[in-house]
Design the sequence.
């Protein structure tokens, strides 16, 4: 069989390159490390192309891509570049130098805040919100709230990895926002 006749299942291919680190950052946690996806140029291209090909479609094409701090920056910026649209970073509190809007959300123990520049989104812009994974959903939902507060229309959320057992994709579904995911680890 030649390379040109091999059919590639993108999800399975990417899953093979996601490293699972047991008991990190605490006992019982199976951490899904996406850095191997970025280290191999072929794998990184497959990853980016999966997003780009989806969002080139006229009905899904955003006006801007927003990425969540920090791994959403890596994926989101490259996807925005390939789509020839702008990129907007949603940062952890205190990292943006200009006037911001903020959204605080609950974590398992405590809370966190993300911010967005007030001039990042124009009213009515279609926004793709992207991150590396969705776990509990707090960061993704906070990002949606920020973007919508500025008049953006979040058309879809996208992640490499969904961890549905942690409830984030279910919470996101309750907002009515669609989720595009490339790999799912459910109870594994």
Sequence:
């Amino acid at each position: 069989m030649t390379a040109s006749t091999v059919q590639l299942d993108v999800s399975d291919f990417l899953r093979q390159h996601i490293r699972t680190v047991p008991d990190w950052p605490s006992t019982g946690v199976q951490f899904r490390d996406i850095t191997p996806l970025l280290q191999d140029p072929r794998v990184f291209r497959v990853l980016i192309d999966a997003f780009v090909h989806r969002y080139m479609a006229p009905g899904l094409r955003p006006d801007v891509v927003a990425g969540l701090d920090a791994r959403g920056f890596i994926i989101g910026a490259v996807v925005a570049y390939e789509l020839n649209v702008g990129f907007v970073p949603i940062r952890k509190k205190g990292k943006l130098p200009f006037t911001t809007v903020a959204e605080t959300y609950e974590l398992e123990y405590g809370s966190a805040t993300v911010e967005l520049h007030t001039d990042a989104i124009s009213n009515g812009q279609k926004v793709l919100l992207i991150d590396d994974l969705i776990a509990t959903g707090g960061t993704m939902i906070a990002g949606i709230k920020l973007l919508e507060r500025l008049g953006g229309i979040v058309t879809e959320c996208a992640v490499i990895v969904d961890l549905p057992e942690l409830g984030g994709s279910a919470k996101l579904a309750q907002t009515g926002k669609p989720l595009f995911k490339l790999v799912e680890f459910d109870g594994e």
Confidence is low (pLDDT under 50) at residues 1-5.
